[in-house]
Amino acid sequence: MFRKITITSLALSAITATFATSLHAQSKNATLVGTFPSTSGGANDVWGFEDPTTGKPYCMFLTTAGTYILDVSNPATPINRGYFAASLSGWRTSTWRDAKYWKGYGYIVTESGGGMQILDLRNPDSPSYVTTYNPTNITWRNTHNIALDFQTGYVYCCGTGSGMHIIDVDSTPGTPKYITTWSSPYIHDLDIRDGYAHVAYIYSNQYAILDVSKLPTITQVGIASAPGSQYCHNNWATDDGLYSVTTNEASAGPIGIWDCSNKAAPKLISSYKANPTTAPTAIPHNAYILDYVIHASYYTEGYRCVDMSDPTKPVEVGYYDTYAGASGGYNGNWGCYPFARSGIQYISDRSTGLYLVKPLASAKRYGNGTKGSNGKVPHVHLKGAGFLGNGNFGIGVRDAKASSAAVYLIGGKPANLNAGGLEILVELVNPPALVLTAPTDATGKSFVGLPVPNDLTLNGAQINLQALCVDAGSSALDLSGSEGLEFTLFQN
Length: 492
Description:
By secondary structure, the chain is mainly β. It has 2 domains: 2-12 and 365-488, Sandwich (Immunoglobulin-like), CATH 2.60.40.1930; 23-359, YVTN repeat-like/Quinoprotein amine dehydrogenase (Methylamine Dehydrogenase, Chain H).
């Protein structure tokens, strides 16, 4: 259910707090918070996770020779909690390494050897090597990427030269179970969402959508030619599954933005290039989407942050360039991880190591929320970045009680109150919060359009947001509640 409300600058000014930021010479709307140098070979990818008990953030920082487990709870000074060499698995050094985290374990793959290295991260301050999983009933000599289905807990190991191996790491965490292999065409990378895999056929430069809802059966349902001359490299879809992005890892290759609401016929609707005038041959690597904002690693052009609240008109809203050399080629920013609750981006540079960067367009999440009768904590989210004049900006909630009512609290300070078992995470009185209501649909989703005025008095305003939902029995107040979300309004 869609509802659009215009919030005036006068109303927003009542809940405004100042937000100071300093900009690096090679940055826009992004602040460097901390670094960690690579001392065991050049860096490649990075992935983050949280200790589910303490909530502390960590990351797996990958290099050509192994994997660091870093405590980034103080992002200014990351702490190395463990290093695991490729040689533990009988692997050689490699330019390519990739990792994912699921239920207390890290799963790592490489082009320099077969199987999947498993790390026990249940106590991430004291991580340990478990084993290297390589079942004898399949051929598995190397892997380019590992993708995770966050709904099923299955990992998809692709770019193996012998097909894409699908492994269950959810049923018995730390003890994988082989499911099936997709043999052909060769898949370079993918994202799995709501029973569909958005895949990159790199050698034919195509974006395909596979139905993986009935494993071990896999069916291709849609395919399209990717933009650019060659090398469709990476895919990622929005949380609602309506749009996706592809990257073309070639000179002057764009990031393509797709309408994939019809899975049988994905449609390219726009594209983005970093510095198209001054760096016409720049190459994108990987792109992810969170809250309708693209977070991309773009080699020599660094980390790029792009609003796609109107998917037909992407707007660059921030960047941090880790590489001071000439544009073009494969130096610079390899990977980025945009999903930390802090809103801090984990950015890996091939030569210099890990950068922790906070873009203005990236929201912070806090608190725990209150479960509803469906057993889930409602998930509050944004649509786009809060730059001044963004007429497509909005707020929403999912995983709430279906066919009910959502109550949005919009304030200028966080709170931490408990009212009859309901966690309230937005200050209601000083300054006074705005309260908006909107119905949830049959799937438990709600959305409110909230255009941001183009008013410089709002620049730097800190906004705190929480969604409550009418849900009998979820608390003494018959309300469930999302975690808190804090974002910034800024001039682009």
